[in-house]
Design brief:
heterodimer, A: alpha+beta, Jelly Rolls, CBS-domain, Beta Polymerase, domain 2, 4 domains, 4-stranded antiparallel β-sheet, globular, B: 220 residues, alpha/beta, Nucleotidyltransferase, domain 5, 44% helix
Chain lengths: 638, 220
Amino acid sequence: MKNSIAERVRDFLKNHPPFNLLKQKKLLEIAEEVVIIYLEKGDSLFKANDTFNEHFYMVRDGAIGLFHQNKRVDEIVTISDVGDIFGVRPLIAQENYKLTAKANEESIVYAIPIVAFQEAVENNSAVYKYLITAFATNAYDSYTSKENKEIFVDYLPSNSQDITNFQTANYTKSPIVCHISSKLKDAAIQMSSHKIGCIIVVDDTKKPVGIITNSDIKNKIATGLFPIETNVKNIMSSPVITNKKGLTVADGQLQMIKHNIGHLCITKDGTVNSKLVGVLSHHDILVTLGNNPSVILKEIKRAKRTKKLRTARLKANTLLKSYLEQNIPLSHIITIISQINDAVTVRAIELSLKKMLTPPPVAFSWLALGSQGRKEQLLFTDQDNALIFEDVPESSYEETQAYFLELARLITKALNKIGFEYCEADMMASNPEWCKSITEWKAQFENWITNPDEKAILLSSIFFDYSRIYGNEKLVDELTNTIYKNLENSSLFFNFLGLDAIKNPTPLGFFKQFLVEQNGDKKDLFNIKSRALMPLIDAARLLVLSKQLKGINNTSERYERLAEIDPKNKELYESCSYAFKALSKFKTKQGFQNNNSGKFIELESLTKEEKLKLKRCFKPIQDIQETLKVRFDLKNFM
Amino acid sequence: MLEKWLHKKKKHYPSFYLEYLDLFKKKKRGRIQSTRFVAFDTETTGFNFDKDRVLSIGAVSFIGKSIHVNNSLELYIKQDIFNPETVKIHGLIKHGALNKVNELEAIKIFLSYIKNDVLIAHHANFDRTMMNKMMQRNGLGKLKNKFIDTGVLFKKSKHIIYQENLKHHSLDDLCKELNVPKVDRHTATGDALITAMVFLKTISRLDKRKNLKWNYLLSS
């Protein structure tokens, strides 16, 4: 019987090694036995120490992360992309898996039965050679991915620095160079256009003869020692310190300390007498070690591909974790992480703009909504965003919107790849409802404010916490002013918002026990987000909107500002601010422990002390809800 | 009396259809995750339930999230009715080189493949009616299986604020929305596989929000 699916599976396999080495007929035999597996993000195919399966795998769509389990923490070893094979251990050695394979995003995987594969391959040595290489590369982390024919292209930071120290350092390949006869001015222009801090001076045979750094220019040109048109020869530091490729991070760092320099030149044979192949900078080393926010920010700004952004954002997670362990104040942590999140978004937008065939037809603004808009996003969460563009004549509206929708589609796709999941409710700028002109937006908000209904309130909790991430400031200011003007006489809207803010009952029951979920698969878990954080967030938003306080989005800052202008309730507001920070920290820590958003808490896993701490935070929630009831006269509406 | 009459009528059915009917006597549904589903699609000579005929049936089955390639169904049916208009969509010509079976044979194979499992199709009503008409032409009763329409299911998976202004979703729309690779579109088996993927992706979105239950899945 004809089997079209098997034929299509074969068509995919034949383009990827090792299957490209097999004959079509054999390949079809294998393809007929393939199992197509769909994986949601986070689903695992096999876990470390599991006995081996009858299959090995190839990624058809999406990406599968391979993790090494270290104590309770999952360290990512590599990510397999479309066309990569993984889980080949049972083919080579009949022993238990050493790594865990988990879907990094929604994926489709082909499971290839080992028996059928072995029968088809027989003794094709080329195939086995490939498999062994793939297996070896996978077994311990390789950094020199290019040489392995891009089998495993990603590198992600590990938590343990011991491992990092002995990794091969990731130097900059094909560094920016200038010829020894060039003028300093031209070299400086090159440096600034590439946003780099140093340039290597080479001779006719591409051998490195010197290096010019920012400080050379500062010390020798800016001080007037040499004219700006001088030859690079006069300015450069020479000779350079060279090394072979393949040196470890630890070695690189030692060399730099020894010679008191910031850059090592990597040459073909490791001496100054061979061709320059790369540069290892102190920055590269820090990047590999990876827990320094300014390094991460730099890396984000220089990223040329979305993949790099994902790596950088994952490093921020490592950073966040160590901050939490060190008990650094949460307001500080939040500031840093939101800066990183914003920078990632900005870079994703810049990269997406480059992919567009034409520049934007009119000015636009990219807004972050919800938790990113409030600058409170710590762990990866869903992306919520919107786009405003300048008014255009009606005749070209559709065309303009189409342009921005396409742009937004690229941006949201990039953000998703970085780790911010698509918004379940599709509150993203790629949705025509949330990508429109300034006039349309004004009308939209006015409609929400003057005709509040359930839907409007549902949306307002997300849309009223917006902040500009990229683009034109004027558009956003204009929108904000219109909103506040509309709010001046709209008590009904505040009543609705108030009802929404108190709709979640206090987290404690009558006997002071935690109120847990009653049904669903989260039964008996405590939802810290909806029961504790949301009431505080909603109340803060309502209060600042009603007091016409513009430009403060962060919940704890909102309470602090409220405490200033309303000294009567200073104590309440301050305790709300404190409670919010403590609860966020709690949620983040839980999220790390369980590798999820931290939203649902298993009460049994908490110590008595932790439970007490949590309960202390609930008191202000009750108080602020009572305050709202009185202030907005909600009793009459209930 | 009535029972006797029903009983009498049943007797005229060929044994394979009676066996099929028997399967529906025991009613038991286990967990969704461990239940076999069959996604299927038909290619026809047109959209007229009475005049047009089924040219091919494609189906894939799955339990959990794994689809076994060697357990798919691909049937091509001999038909006297032929409509050159639809050839450009499905590419099936009257005297193609494919190995074809007659209608009764196709039904027999199809029923033994689907058993009493839940069937999944996109705009299921069309495929269901086409199959029922074909079965009636051959002196059989209708399909007894439960149906899930991926178009309806997708609509349910959307956030409540968008449901009201959702338009009619074609399989192509869903592929785009859910990022399902479109391979072999407009062959019965290809579309069956795509439908299965659409189903899996949609229920994973639904399952995230709530613990998925049978009555929710089967309600329309």
